[in-house]
Design goal:
Blueprint lengths: L1 E11 L2 H17 L3 E5 L13 E7 L2 H9 L1 H8 L5 E10 L1
Antiparallel strand pairs: 1-3, 1-4, 2-3
Helix pairs in contact: 1-3
């Protein structure tokens, strides 16, 4: 089964940090052959909390998604956002 990274942002306090993160994160996504399915864009909240940004990345397997997240490359990107965003991040198995 495929693996997905789902990330929803409640708040973004530093757009420049997010831009720097996006460059580094994309390099890590490419290394693990991930595919962005959703990367920001228009959204309408039809139920529950409104989030300012959503990202969905598809990987060939759940294991690959985990390897991506815990990789040195992604963790270096991930650390760029410390203290600048509030978000929910999940690794999910799906079809």
């Amino acid at each position: 089964m495929k693996g997905y990274i789902i990330c929803v942002y409640e708040s973004i306090n530093d757009d420049n940090a997010l831009k720097d993160y996006a460059v580094k994160a994309k390099e890590a996504v490419n290394k693990f052959n991930g595919k962005f399915l959703v990367r920001g864009g228009k959204n309408i909240s039809t139920e529950g909390k409104k989030f300012v940004r959503t990202v969905v990345i598809e990987f060939t397997s759940f294991e690959t998604a985990k390897k991506f997240f815990y990789s040195k490359e992604y963790q270096n990107a991930h650390n760029l956002l410390k203290g600048t965003v509030l978000r929910h991040h999940q690794i999910i198995e799906g079809s």
